[in-house]
Amino acid sequence: MALTHWPAKSFRPVAATVALAAVFLSNAAAEEQNADIHIDRAAQQASWPWIVNDGAGNRWDVLPNGSISNGNNSSAYSGAMFLRANGSEFNTGTPGALSKDGRELEVGPWSCGTFNVWRRIYVDAKSGYCRWIDIFENQTNQRQSISLEYRIATNYPMTLCQTSAGNTAVGPQDWAMATGNANTSAAAMLHVFSSPSSKVRPRVTHSSSSNQMRYDFKASIGPGKAFALCFFEMQHKNQGQAAAAIKAFDPAAELRKIPLPLRMLIANMGARVQMIGALALPRDGKNDQVLLANGDQLMGTLLNESYSIETLFGRLDVPADRVLGLACPAREDPQIMMALTDGQVVAGKWLSGPLQLTTVNGSKVSIELDRLASASYRLSDEKGETFPALPAVAVLRDGQRLAFKADGADLTFQTQYGSFKLSPADLTALHLDTPNSGLHRAVLTNGSILSGLLTAKSQTLALELDKTLTVESLLIERMLFSREKPASAPQWQAAVVLRNGDRLFGRIAQDAITVETTSGPMAVAPKDIEQAQFAGDLPDSVQITLHSGTNVSGQLTAAALQFEPASGMKLLLPIAHLRSLSASNEAAGTPPAVNPAGGDDLQTDTPDSVSPPPSRKRPRLPRIRPGTTQPVAAPQLQTTGG
Description:
Layout: E1 10-11, H1 27-37, E2 45-46, E3 50-53, E4 59-62, E5 77-85, E6 88-89, E7 96-98, E8 104-112, E9 115-123, E10 130-138, E11 144-154, E12 160-163, E13 176-180, E14 188-192, E15 203-206, E16 212-221, E17 226-236, H2 239-248, H3 251-255, H4 260-263, E18 273-276, E19 279-282, E20 288-292, E21 297-302, E22 306-311, E23 314-319, E24 323-327, E25 335-340, E26 345-350, E27 355-359, E28 364-367, E29 372-376, E30 392-396, E31 401-403, E32 412-415, E33 418-421, E34 427-431, E35 440-444, E36 449-454, E37 458-462, E38 468-472, E39 476-481, E40 492-498, E41 503-508, E42 513-517, E43 520-524, E44 529-534, E45 541-546, E46 551-556, E47 560-566, E48 569-574, E49 578-588
Parallel strand pairs: 1-16
Antiparallel strand pairs: 2-7, 3-4, 5-6, 5-11, 7-8, 8-9, 9-10, 10-17, 11-16, 12-13, 13-14, 14-17, 15-16, 18-19, 20-21, 20-29, 21-27, 22-23, 22-26, 24-25, 24-29, 25-26, 27-28, 30-31, 30-39, 32-33, 32-36, 34-35, 34-39, 35-36, 37-38, 40-41, 40-49, 41-47, 42-43, 42-46, 44-45, 44-49, 45-46, 47-48
């Protein structure tokens, strides 16, 4: 049999926050949830090899690197589940931490370049399998890529093979494979590397003439993010039993044994978690789901016809057909978070009675709010994973996402270069929570980023929910505006990078730039400039490269550059504020790639831009209640450049 290749899928896992599903965590709660991600290292430790029998009596002998030595004597493996990351073998040299019941072991962290890696190995006491969950955490503040290789060797060549699709070679629809050998002394194995519903699967390399098989993954992970990969291995007496086990094995049922915070990190098992802003709801296409505060999960059909909450903008009654799910941030908190089918998230005091659920076995259950962690509806055409375009969304600091009519907002924006009334048509986002700089940041539709302050102390927003919300600007995290492409692409002629990290695309709004050269003054037309670099130690010094290839060096005669990033917005930029300038000799629709030193690559509304790494404490988010305000420090505008 020829080598079977299925192209490895490069993936960006769902940005799973280390939080109970759909719950915003306080610091104490974050620490509690992190305990579900990792086994307490202060607990009992394992001796090597760690040998445990599964529920079917199979032996699993785990080595310090998380691999299996032989399994059942010498009839099964010849070393299995070796992990290599970015070309290096996993090897910590540290003792393994054991779970309280002694059925699960964790080794790590292992430092692999920009990643920390842990391996959790679990041997099930009821079913006959061993499970691996490998956790990869990006330790940097930039997106990182990682290549992963898993190797499995059996004691006999894998001459017999049957995939989950019933074939002898792995294809794109396969999620498991049974392998064995006609020799009666040889054991057979079931290898589970994905699930029927997962879109993330490895490249599987296998040959019937070899005792080797291999999984390959590639991943791109956001700053401070973590993801996990999960695998199951089973030992059987013969190939027939291993092949039959494919049909009997239910990945979804076995995944429910995993703590939800850890399950949310798994990328290759189709553990469906939908992100609505920073809200995470576990959902699938079969059943409504209810997660209780004690960690139990109920599956079935939610029966409530409507839901009522008291919000910042009054009582809100929502029919059930407009709700995707809801969650309770904490038992002591009477507020709930509710996700709507159009992508909005509202919060308020619960006014409805208990949740009513008919379980999959036909029982009717009534669930009081103090027992609830989250509830979510099954995926359907009416309640899918995509949302309609909203004209504008205000994201509050407590996680609410409220659609509003943009024309009514006060978008007066004070910058170092003057005060401007920003137009929603020119905006992609306004970021008001920017701890790195303290200033607000306006992101324009042409890609420009400009720092300043939204001057209005409060906003009165006409909500799409037919309500009016008056809220302090300090309680708004960001405002997002429609990303639908304009009828004609924005035109730019120049790109300017400022020393504070801002970047501006638009046009130079003056006829010429005069440079005092050694040969005398020289007027340079903006259309002739290809790029210009401004010296940091001598702010008026400039080196200009023209489209003709000519270089012009000297001192600028003017103290400022006139620049227009948007229609009606003319900025007088002090030369001391400029880092670089590039220009085109004709208008273009796509800004050039610019990477300003020290500048943030702002993402306007992606989970990667808001989720913390698993091992760090999440700051307490202010809970906004009707009739109250929160003491949030106001940012200060710097009036000097450099």
